[in-house]
Design a protein that fits this description.
alpha/beta; Rossmann fold; six-stranded parallel beta sheet; 16 helices; 12 strands
Length: about 400
């Protein structure tokens, strides 16, 4: 395997609440040196940001991870490098300034290839713009964890690493190559004592497009029928009096029903009215919902969970493979996940993870696991071992290098 290539991995910050919390908890950080800011963020174990460069370097490949739009970090880099950036963020386009810093970073590093996380986060033409200004770049590969918003987003990209098999069928103009590339995680030491019986971490999807409709229904049903605790991001949209009256009627029905099947039927009716907005889960079950967690706090929550629930969006088209699969198992939680078409390529169902095909089955299996914690721990340990041995950053880094070796020979 030829390791004589230079890889620049480009990541978008994407989670503003997480970034704000880091700087709020470290008031002096904004004026700290670039390396110190980077180290503090890296300590939060948010591997989407700085997950690959150490593994590439350990394999003898010159590499760098750049969170290109993390404003404070990038401006500090520019300052330390003596870049003369005459700008006023109140009157000038902030992104143009930040993009100019990225271009300069890449010109100085002179990468052969760019390895970009999540192509969906960039506007059409972004990568062609970068290519035209950094002559060393021979190839740009982007991971695809969600379908692109429009075909123009593929402009300038040479290949996609698709995180579920169904994305391999997406059609784009030109000769964009596609390869299956699952997410990964470096397993942390397991916790033996679990303080959270049943958890979910992530967006509840109550506001926005329809691709979270099923997730919302399942989460609501599980909070009532299996005491699921949701650590999630929700939109607090304000409703008209008429809308609130409708939701309040459903709330009364949920509270007054002791029949599990009836509760699930009500939850389905509520989710079916998502067009595309329904109230936060907290409106229907405020005791079940906590604030969302990010970085190390999120990973600690997974490690503290006996059982954790995972569900993909409708845009996965029946496949499974989101990042949470590997983060959950890599922290020793017994993960419940849909019985996706490709599940056996990743984990052994009901041995390394627990799968479900319907909300009724999810409720039944969750209740059984909570009544049999020793079995839940056994499955969690098996899933942990699978992620540790088969789904590590090192194994995916090797796939990335093999990918670039192949495409650069063309």
């Amino acid at each position: 395997m030829n390791r004589d290539i230079k890889i620049a991995r480009i990541v978008a910050a994407h989670y503003p609440e997480f970034i704000r919390s880091i700087y709020a908890n470290n008031p002096e950080l904004k004026s700290a040196p670039y390396s110190e800011q980077r180290d503090v963020i890296k300590e939060q174990e948010f591997h989407q940001y700085f997950g690959y460069e150490d593994h590439f370097r350990g394999m003898g490949v010159e590499a760098i991870d750049i969170v290109w739009d993390l404003e404070s970090l990038q401006l500090q880099w520019a300052k330390e490098q003596g870049l003369s950036l005459d700008y006023d963020f109140l009157t000038e386009d902030k992104m143009q300034v930040i993009m100019s810093i990225l271009v300069e970073q890449l010109r100085r590093f002179k990468p052969d290839v760019l390895f970009v996380h999540n192509a969906r986060l960039y506007e059409g033409g972004f990568w062609q713009y970068i290519k035209e200004r950094v002559p060393s770049i021979r190839w740009i590969t982007c991971t695809m964890g969600f379908p692109l918003r429009n075909k123009m987003q593929a402009y300038g990209i040479d290949s996609f690493l698709c995180c579920v098999p169904s994305f391999m069928q997406e059609k784009y103009s030109g000769t964009v190559e596609k390869e299956l590339f699952y997410y990964c995680y470096d397993a942390r030491p397991q916790k033996t004592h679990k303080n959270i019986p049943f958890s979910f971490f992530g967006s509840t999807g109550n506001c926005g497009t329809m691709h979270h409709r099923t997730r919302y229904e399942y989460l609501l049903g599980l909070t009532y029928n299996a005491d699921l605790k949701v650590y999630g991001k929700e939109s607090s949209k304000i409703y008209t009096d008429n809308q609130r009256a409708v939701w309040s009627d459903y709330l009364k029905e949920l509270r007054n029903s002791s029949d599990s099947a009836k509760v699930l039927s009500i939850c389905k009716e509520i989710a079916d009215k998502k067009n595309p907005v329904v109230p936060p889960l907290a409106f229907f079950n405020h005791q079940a919902v906590r604030a969302g967690l990010f970085g190390k706090a999120y990973l600690d929550g997974l490690a503290d969970s006996l059982v954790t629930f995972n569900i993909h969006t409708e845009h996965a088209y029946g496949d499974v493979g989101n990042m949470r699969m590997f983060e959950a198992t890599g922290n020793g939680a017994c993960m419940m996940v849909e019985h996706g078409r490709n599940i056996q390529h990743l984990f052994e169902p009901d041995t390394e993870v627990v799968t479900y095909r319907s909300i009724g089955e999810a409720v039944d299996k969750a209740q059984w696991l909570l009544q049999n914690p020793a079995k839940a721990k056994e499955i969690g340990a098996a899933g942990y071992l699978k992620t540790k041995t088969h789904h590590s950053f090192r194994s995916r880094a090797e796939q990335v290098i093999e990918h670039f070796n192949r495409v650069l020979q063309k």
